[in-house]
Every structure is written in C-alpha cells, then in structure tokens.
Amino acid sequence: MDTRTIELAAGQTLALALRRGDTLQLAHGRLQVWAPATELAGTQHRPMQRWDEGQALLADDSGTWQAQALTAATLLLQRHAPAWRRRWPAPPAPAGSRLARCATSSCSPPTSSS
What we know:
Largest sheet: 4 strands, antiparallel
Radius of gyration: 23 Å
CATH superfamily: Jelly Rolls
Number of domains: 1
Order of helices and strands: EEEEEEEEEEHH
Number of strands: 10
Helix content: 10-25%
Distance between the termini: 50 Å
CATH architecture: Sandwich
Protein name: DUF2917 family protein
C-alpha cells in the first residue's frame, strides 16, 4: 500500500481523484470537503462536509473529491498498489550480478582463479 502526504495552507483548494478502496485521512487541521456530484431527483447534488482532525474516508467509488483547507491541513492518502504489481514478482536479477549471487549462495565477492 502506498501512502502519500498532502500539505495544504489555509484557504488552499484541492481536487483529488480517488479510486475505489482509497483511504483519505485528515491528520491535522480542518477542511471543507465536497463529494463527487450525484444526480438526485433530476438535479445535480454535491454534498459538503466539514472535517476535523482524525476524520477519514474509505472511497466506495471512483470520483473527484474537492476540498478547501479552513486551517493549515495535512492529508494522508493511502492507495493499494495496482493489481498487476501485486500479482507479478520482481524480474530476476541479471546473471552474474551481486543480487543473483546472493540469491543462490553467500554474498561474498567472487574469487578469481589463477
């Protein structure tokens, strides 16, 4: 899981594209937050919330959230690594490299033969 820290000065605004499963937490400060617009009874509705320190959100769907810092604020965004990165192991080390030698034997430097 990747964590990113976002610092906002008082009055600064932010538009943040969240994906399903992202977690956004207000570590410090106060925010005014707008959820992505939804249609309600034929009209666009964009709910607003005031967040205090410690408040968090687990994104149910993808969408763009907007925020304005009421005081200096620190946000923490946690996002899972892409599925392809979780499924595929790292590529093997090139033959003869120190990493390849350490994987197959001790990490001592190779000895030269005379």
